[in-house]
Amino acid sequence: MAVLHAWRAARVTPLGELHSPPRVTAALLRLTVQVVLVASLWRGLYAATGTTGGLGRDQAVTYAVLAVLASRLRELDQYTGRDTVMQHMHYGTIVYWYLRPLPPQRYYALRSLGERLYGLAWALAGYAVCLPAGVVEPPGSAAVAGVFALSLLLGQWVLHYVMLVIDQLCFWTLRNGAALLILVFAQNLLSGVYAPLWFFPHWFVTMSGFLPFQATLSVPLSLYVGRIPLSEAAVQLAVQAAWVVALALFTRLLWRRAARRVISQGG
Amino acid sequence: MTRSDAKQAAHHIEVRGLSRTFRTTVRRPGFGGALRSLVNPERVAKHAVSGITFDVAPGELLALLGPNGAGKSTTIKMLTGILTPTSGVARVAGVVPYEDRQRNARNIGAVFGQRTQLWWDLPVRESFSILRDIYEVPRAEHTARLKEFDDLLELSSFWDTRVRHLSLGQRVRCDLAAALLHDPQVVFLDEPTIGMDVVVKEQVREFLRHQVEERGRTVLLTTHDMTEVERLAERVVLINHGRLVLDGTLDEIRRTFGSTWQVRVTPADPHTEVAPLPGIALLRREGPQVVFGPEGPGAPTVHQALKQIVERYELTDLAIDEADLEDVMRAAYVQAGPGADEV
């Protein structure tokens, strides 16, 4: 099984980052500034009120800071490393993905796994600083922590497939810059990174329920802060798992079709 | 290897009536045309490769030649399994490449010009390690092969450098090594030395010669560098407009198209209006000199041409150049039939 031996492909993006100290410094600075600003913002918003939208101040700050930390799982700089699907299509190097015994979908999955593990290391480091500093609250119980971890895993899995769909677009459109911008905005808005979803109108929350974004971040963070009680966790986890299955099938179909496109676009 | 594979092994590459047709949209000129193309696109079929047939024996280096757009890269992409032919059959080391991409991938290596397969942000050795794992090459074997490649291509002085900081020559040498690290029987090289300086080109040629003569690899090479062809290939397949024009040795090509000659003259009066003569083309001007060459299938012999030129112009100097391979290929390209059909 080439996929087992090819684990080093998971190191591609993290190693690229570590070989570029300015990128690591920039990531550290950005994360620090984001956490400080977001914590200050939500503390300020709650200064004149005790509870809003069913959430206390500490819960809201915890949610917002965890959202910032979790967003590190997604924001690695593939573009500088010339390793986006769009760049491979542009430079014609996508052909090499099809000349190896490791199928492109498995290479992509391995690489994505490495990126998320690297992002997780950043998020955990941030969490390790924020927790004792009292910026974020600990989970309500061990059960909450466990369910949160499982939900975060499923959420990242969903996010992996959503990003993959955007990348696969390149096989038809060559470029996906606009789609990526829309995706990042939609993901931040609809998954509750900008603000928890319960602050939005009911119709908006209902509508976003038909999209996979809630499953990426809003659900695990809501479980962590107790906005979704443990008694409802099973349903939420099942919805996340359903998104994983649906997107896995959809992206599999797209990979098959993309293989027929690679030559006419790849030059 | 199956019985069928063994039967095919007589030829490492076997191509039978291979064709590939692309359907493309005609882009009409102007704003109105662009709008019409958007609303009512006109689709045409473009025959990139039309029924070509050839074989390559194990341990042979074959040069696949042709002008830009002749169909060379499309042919290589079908043989590497990236592209499925519209019709015809290809086998590479006993495998139909486009039907079994993964199995084919273990038998072949490929370099596509300046397109690198190395990871841009990583030191070269990291790329080699990733490829070692992807191809499941044992560590000892990998180390030994890397040493062999280092001896020939002098990689170790820069293999700890990130790919983005390598020069073109260094990068292509690393790409050649990367393509051969898993010990493939068949290697496809699509203009591997394009843009390189002469020293690196010679090093790469020596490396390729070693791979063919000492390691017995089968190499299919496309290039526009005729010096490379003369130094590396005994046999040449010439395609133009997607069709096979000639399959033979360099000597055969010279015999077929090598009647090409060039007559270099210096007119006595530098202001003389020099024009082509019947069957004789005016190829170029080089300062005060004018170079003539044959034109069309009914071109005169060099002696007949000399007679015509001398009778027509008053000259102070005259020389006959023996046609080199580049001239021969130019003649071959010119005589190689009509453009690709558009349906």
From TrEMBL, chain A:
InterPro entries: ABC-2_transporter-like (IPR010390). It comes from the Bacteria. Keywords: Membrane, Transmembrane, Transmembrane helix. It holds the Pfam family ABC2_membrane_6. The chain crosses the membrane at residues 117-136, 142-166, 178-200, 233-255. PANTHER family: SLR1174 PROTEIN, SLR1174 PROTEIN-RELATED. This is ABC-2 type transport system permease protein. It comes from Streptomyces lannensis. The lineage of its organism: Bacteria, Bacillati, Actinomycetota, Actinomycetes, Kitasatosporales.
From TrEMBL, chain B:
Its main location: membrane. This is ATP-binding cassette domain-containing protein. It comes from the Bacteria. GO terms for molecular function: ATP binding. It comes from Streptomyces lannensis. Residues 13-266 form the ABC transporter domain. It holds the Pfam family ABC_tran. It is found in: Cell membrane. Keywords: Antibiotic resistance, ATP-binding, Nucleotide-binding, Transport. InterPro entries: AAA+_ATPase, ABC_transporter-like_ATP-bd, ABC_transporter_ATP-binding, P-loop_NTPase. PANTHER family: ABC TRANSPORTER ATP-BINDING PROTEIN, ABC-TRANSPORT PROTEIN, ATP-BINDING COMPONENT. It is a peripheral membrane protein.
